[in-house]
Amino acid sequence: MKSFAYYSNASVVSWNDVKLVDTIGTQRERLSCWGARNEGEEEPLKRYNIETTFWPFPEEYRVVSSIENSITFPNIELLNERDQTPWLTNFATSIYGELAQAPPFPDPNLLCLENTFYVPNIRTYDGAPDYKHAIEELSHEGPIWEDVGKHLRFNKHINHLTDELLIALLGSNRKNFIAVHLRQGDFVDLGRTSQAADEVAETYKAGVERVQTALKARKGGPKSDLPVLFATDSTDPTFIKKLSKLGWVYINHVEFATTARFGGWYPGVLDSSVLSRAQGFVGTRQSTFSYVAARRVESWNQGATLIVG
């Protein structure tokens, strides 16, 4: 966060600068925020002994963004500037029966938003909204990436582990490579990936070939094909073996004992960090994980990227 504050020129205060974490005897406090979660569904500030309540945005401010109702940046300003007591009173009465039984309303002096990921970047074209990019794509022209995303770097600890992992995979942490992210997981359940494994492998193989060609065509680009690393949430050994037969190197967290050594979050974090080091990248359409990796490769390494699937 210190690095982000420096490069973005934004003033940032972390929660652990405000209140101690996991300390018995700290004061129990309540904080009401704007957001879509149901009360009691999650407790994001539980470690700070803060009980959070989320109130939905008034209908007039809502926009449909990807899979959630959200709000635009201009409407966030209106939300905070205007008195929302009438809306909150009506909603609280309909849910809790009596206003006295309802949690506190959001404090007008402290704007708290549950999740800003789905806030769309809306531009106008000929007087009408221009939805050029889906929210998952993180438009490289938009403020979400330009003002925030590209300034959020990995810390020294993660970079050290990434160096160790790259040495294990490639024999060096300084080799240029192309990274591939193949997401399956819930995409299969959602019907987004219905092709057979052979067809999926061929799709990504063609994508890698295009990125290899694009890099070679650049001034000072590589003379030969770069090695390819791939990350996937698939647990199908046949599918992984099929990709390995292409000569690609699997980021195998079982062999690296990532979870056992560092914890359950680390496979995903290290995948993200490894992908961000690539000179070229091929990712999965509609996967936010892929789009974030692509933007990092473009912004941090001036790399070539392609989304397929």
Question: What are the main properties of this structure?
Answer:
two-stranded parallel ribbon, 11 helices, 5-stranded parallel beta sheet, Rossmann fold, 309 residues, alpha/beta, 11 strands, 2 domains
Order of helices and strands: HEEEEHHEEHHEHHEHEHHEHE
Morphology call: globular
What is the oligomeric state here? Answer: single chain
Tally of domains: 2
CATH C-level of the largest domain? Alpha Beta
- CATH fold description of the largest domain: Rossmann fold
Strand tally: 11
Low-confidence stretches: 186-193
**Largest sheet, spatial ordering of strands:** 9-8-7-10-11
Averaged pLDDT, please? 87
Hey, roughly how much beta strand do the residues contain?
15-25%
Integer-rounded radius of gyration:
23 Å
> Could you tell me how far the N terminus lies from the C terminus, measured between alpha carbons in angstroms?
34 Å
Layout of strands and helices, then pairs:
Blueprint: H1 2-8, E1 29-34, E2 50-55, E3 62-65, E4 68-71, H2 73-81, H3 85-96, E5 123-125, E6 128-130, H4 143-148, H5 156-170, E7 178-182, H6 186-190, H7 197-216, E8 228-232, H8 237-244, E9 249-250, H9 258-262, H10 266-276, E10 280-284, H11 288-301, E11 304-308
Parallel strand pairs: 1-2, 7-8, 7-10, 8-9, 10-11
Antiparallel strand pairs: 3-4, 5-6
